[in-house]
Every structure is written in structure tokens, then in C-alpha cells.
Amino acid sequence: MAPLLNRFAVTLFAVLCAAATASAEPGLRLSGDAAIPSDVASQEPGVLQLIPLDAEPWIVTLDSYESTIARVKDLGLVGNLITDRIRICTEKKWSYCDINTTTTATAFLAKDQTTLWSVRHNFDRQLNSFRSKLRRSLDAAGKAKALDAFEPAFLLYDSQGNLLFDTRAEKDFASFELLGNDDLVHIAGSSKATDVVSLKLSRPIDRKPLPVRETYSSIGDATYILGFPMETKLRETQHSAPDSDGRSYRVSIGKVLDPRSSIIGAGGTLTDDDANLMSELFVLTDADGVPGQSGGPIVDTKGNVIGVFSNHCKADGRESPADEYCPLGGFGVTVPWMNKIGPLQRDLMNRPATK
Length: 355
Description:
This protein folds into 2 domains: 2-54 and 102-342, Thrombin, subunit H, CATH 2.40.10; 66-99, no CATH class. 21% of the residues lie in helices and 22% in strands. The chain contains 9 helices and 16 strands. It has a 7-stranded antiparallel β-sheet. A 7-stranded antiparallel β-sheet has the order 8-7-2-5-6-10-9, with no helix packed on it. A hairpin with a 5-residue loop joins β7 and β8. The relative contact order is 0.22.
């Protein structure tokens, strides 16, 4: 499968949103909005704000400031945070810059009160740090076994701001049940086809888990992205639609796209077979996607989870998807594809660590 997918060499973030042929309802709506079906609104308690606790800061030296900014410019919210921090360090003429990219994201309870779903990239900094330390202390035979002992560090809040889970507390810890292998499938040089995680929590969280749908959606079906987006601009002035304040739980409304009119297929290169494959891997939606929603559920009108939101486009000329609505939308891994990815990927420790 990988050779077929590797043909899509167009960088996702470089696709122009003007090429879209579908439209959605721009805006990031509060939970009480009349446009949100009651079955979708009722899922709010199980959608949680995730705050990954990075293990250690990233140290950037003075001679690599500019090259680092160039390398992270397309990373959305994280890239903006890194760039802003480096600019402060430059102004102060510091010889090195310590960068902590801890940001808010989204996760949700799926099926039961001890199963948490999100996306892999919310934990990549911790995984890479852990992997680097193992390389310095373990031989190859010990790395895979040691991965079982890796415990991600994070906080979970509900939409009312209540702290529900804190891995700094002795009773709160989690382990990976599913960890997408980013060597399995590549789309345009990225690993979004397996950008998912399933965590088993040490104790139940007293919130209603979301129901999961095991079947695929059809083009044109309604979709809703639930989560905690970063602060946005211009939705109100350009579309008379609500912007996000960067703190509140929000819902985005859209529909399932034909792959050829989505963020992946807008370059016009997809064959019918390729388009069918994209629909198997991804829920492609024109719902308003913004950093912070990553890891949130994509649900149908009944509130059933059909995918895990992973990526979003940005309007041409804009620094971030938060700046302006992009009708090419974004995508998330489908539930049926999650079931095919398989259990914890044992080769994680055998790949080079990246910052």
C-alpha cells in the first residue's frame, strides 16, 4: 500500500484552498448553537481538553535560529509558538533558546470510561525524548520491551474547566493500546494515515464515553468536529460566523467530501482507485478545522464517532488555519482504518528520533 500512497508528493499545506468546490458552514460554534443536533450536543461531556506535558524543553542555539524558523513555519500553532519564542531570544541576544511547545489539544473517551482516543502527534515530543534516552541506555533487544513502560504525561479537563486526570498524581497514569506506526503509510511525506493513539487509563473518568461507528460514511454525509480550537480570526468579519476564543469547547459543521475536492485531492491527480483508497483511510470533511481540535472526534448526526481529527488546510498566504477559514477542510483517520492498523507498533524505538 505504501508505494501507491507515496505518489502523492504535493505538500498538504501548500495546496491552495481556492481550488475547493465544496462549501461548509465556517465558524466554531458554542455547544448551545441551534445548528448543532441534540445527539451531537450530548457528546460534549466525553470530549476533553488534552494538555500534553512535554518531558523537557528543546534547546536551539544562536547559529540555528533562522534555519529552525524556516523548518517549522508550516507546523501551525506549534510552529508559531517556536517562531515567537526564537524571536524573543533573538531580541534579547541570548546564545541559546529553550523552547517548550506544550499546547492544548483534544482527546475523548471512546466506548468506555477508561479508553482515551487522540492523535499521535500530540505526544510526539514525549515519544522522541523517550526514544533518545533509550538509545543512550539500552541495547536493541531492550528497546521494544521498554516501550511498554513508557507512560505519557498529560492533563485532561472537561469543557467546564474541571481537572479530571493528572498524570503527575500517583493514581493517574496511562499506557498505549494502539500507537500508529508512522512508517506504515505516507501521504505527501506525512504520516497522517496512522496519526492516532488509543490509551488505557488507570482509572475510569466519570464522563459519558462517545459511541463509535464501525462503518464508513458516504460523500455528502454531515460531519461535526468536536474539540478545543485555538483562538481564531476573521470568521466573524468575513462569514458572520463565530470565532473561537481559544479556551472554549466548540463544534465545527461540515460534510464528507469527495477526495478529489478535498485537501488531499485538490491537485487533480487522484485516480478512481486512489480516491477510493483515500475514503478508506480518511474522513475528508470541509468542517472548519483549527489547531487544538487535533485528536477530537469527527461524529455523524447521531453523535457516533466516525474518525479522529488529525489535519487541516490553511488559506493561501496565511500563517495558520486559525487566520482564515479554508473550504478544503481537513481530515481524520477513519474508525475502520484504526481497526486495521493493529496493536502497539514495536519498531518505534528503531527509528531515528527527531525534534
